[in-house]
Amino acid sequence: MTRTRLGVHSEVGRLRQAILHRPALELDRLTPDNCDDLLFDDVLWPAKARTEHDAFVQVLRDHGVTVHLFGELLAETLHSAEAKAFVLERVCTVQRLGTALAASVRALAEDMAPATLAELLIGGITRADLSPLHAGGLRWQTLGLDDFVIPPLPNTLFQRDNSAWIYGGVTINPMAMAARRRESIHSRAVYRYHPLFREATFPIYYGDDDVDHQPATLEGGDIHVLGRGAVLIGMGERTTPQGVEILARSLFRAGQASRVIAVELPKSHALMHLDTVLTMVDTDTFLRYPGLAPETLRHWSITPASADEIVEQNNGGLAVEQRDDLFGTIADALGIDRPRVLCVDADGRAAAREQWDDADNVLALEPGVVVGYERNTVTNTMLAENGIKVLPIPSGELGRGRGGARCMSCPIEREGI
Ligand SMILES: NC(=O)NCCC[C@H](N)C(=O)O
C-alpha cells in the first residue's frame, strides 16, 4: 500500500499523489443524442481517448506522482459488503428506478463481481444489460432495450470536480448538474471504505451526508488551494454563495484555513469553473485567460468572525468584506508583493480558441512545471518564454468533454509552498 500523507497544501507544491479516471464503458455510451445532456460537446473516439489518457498518466508517473485510477478504487471499494450496500442503497432508489425495478436491479447488482459493478455504475446500465431480468412495472415496460435504466457518468473523467482536498481534509461536492450528481455517491464510498482512506483520519468538510444540498452546490474546478491558509473559490455556473458559506464555515471550524476569497464569474459554459480561466503555475505566478478581466470581477474576502461581529452583523459566523483588487487580495493572503499574471494577449482569437481547448487549465507538478494540452501552442510558448516548463499531453479526443489536465486530476497529496 502506498505511503499516505493525505492533504493538499497548495496549488503548485510538489504533487505526490492524485486520483485520475481512465475513461471506460461510459465513453462508448456517449451518442449525438445524449452528449449534450451528459455535458459533452461531441462524441469521442473512445479507444483514442484512452490512449491519450494513458499518456497523461505516464507523464505524471514519470514525474514521481503516484496515480490512483478511480475505476480501480471504486472496484476495490466494492469488495466490502458494507460499501456495496452503501452505494446500492443510494443508487437503486424507488425515485430513480421505479418501484418494481429498484429491488430487482439491486438484487442483480448485489451478485455482480466488484469490477463489473464498478464498470456499470460509471458506464451506465441499459435494459439489455439486465436481460435475464423479468421485471414487471410501468418503468420496465416503457424502456426500450437500449434505454438506460441508470445513465452513464462520462464526467467521472474530470476527477477534479466531485471531490476536492483542501489542506488536511476533503469536501465531497454536491454537484450543480443533474448529470454529475451520482459521481459524489461513488466518492463518498471510496473515502469511507477504500483501504487507502479508511484508516486515515481527516475532516470531511461538506457533502458526506444524505441531505438534499441543492442549491448550495460546489465543484472542485472552482476551488484553488492557494497555500498559507488561503483558498480561492469561483462562483459561476456551478458553485453558489450558499455552497461557499457552508464550506468556509466548515474549513474555519476545522482550523484548516484562515481565509476564503470568493470571486464571482460570468455564468457561461466556456467558463464553467474558475480553473477554465485561471490556474496557478508557480508560487507567485498565475496563468489567466485574457478574456477574463480581473478588475471587473466582484470578490469578497471571508474570514472567521469574532464573537462581537457575529452579534452585530448577524453574519452566520463569517466576516465578509468586499474588495476591489483581486490580485491584491491574493497577494495579501499569500504574503507576497503582487503575483505575476501571465496572459496570451497578443492574439485574442488564439487566446479564445485555446481557452475553449483548456489552455488555461494546466496542472502543476511542482513550482514552475505544469502539464497542458499540446495543441495549445500559443499559450504553451508564452509560458515557456516566461520560464514555465510545460509537459505536453495529447488532446484530440480527451478535450471534447471541455476539461484539461487540472480538471482530470484530483490531487490527494501535495506539498505546501
Ligand atoms: N474543472 C473543470 O473545468 N472540469 C471540466 C468539467 C467538464 C464537464 N463536461 C462538465 O461540464 O462538468
Helices, strands, pairings?
Blueprint: E1 7-8, E2 15-20, H1 25-28, H2 46-62, E3 66-69, H3 70-77, H4 81-91, H5 94-97, H6 99-111, H7 114-123, E4 125-126, H8 138-142, E5 148-150, H9 159-162, E6 163-166, E7 169-172, H10 183-193, H11 195-198, E8 204-206, E9 223-227, E10 230-235, H12 241-253, E11 259-264, E12 278-282, E13 285-288, E14 299-304, H13 307-313, E15 318-323, H14 326-334, E16 340-342, H15 348-356, E17 363-366, E18 369-373, H16 377-385, E19 389-393, E20 410-414
Parallel strand pairs: 1-20, 2-3, 7-8, 10-11, 13-16, 18-19
Antiparallel strand pairs: 2-20, 4-5, 6-7, 9-10, 11-14, 12-13, 14-15, 17-18
The structure holds citrulline (CIR).
Task: Please tell me about this protein's structure.
- By secondary structure, this protein is α/β, with parallel strands linked by helices.
- The chain has a domain at 155-414: L-arginine/glycine Amidinotransferase, Chain A (5-stranded Propeller), CATH 3.75.10.
- Helices cover 33% and strands 21% of the residues.
- The chain contains 16 helices and 20 strands.
- The strands form 6 sheets. It has a 5-stranded mixed β-sheet with strand order 9-10-11-14-15, with helices on both faces.
- A hairpin with a 2-residue loop joins strand 17 and strand 18.
- Helix 3 crosses helix 7 and helix 4 (81-91) packs antiparallel against helix 10.
- The longest helix has 17 residues, at 46-62.
- Residues 39-40, 155, 158, 160-161, 180, 221, 272-273, 275-276, 401-403, 407 line the site of citrulline.
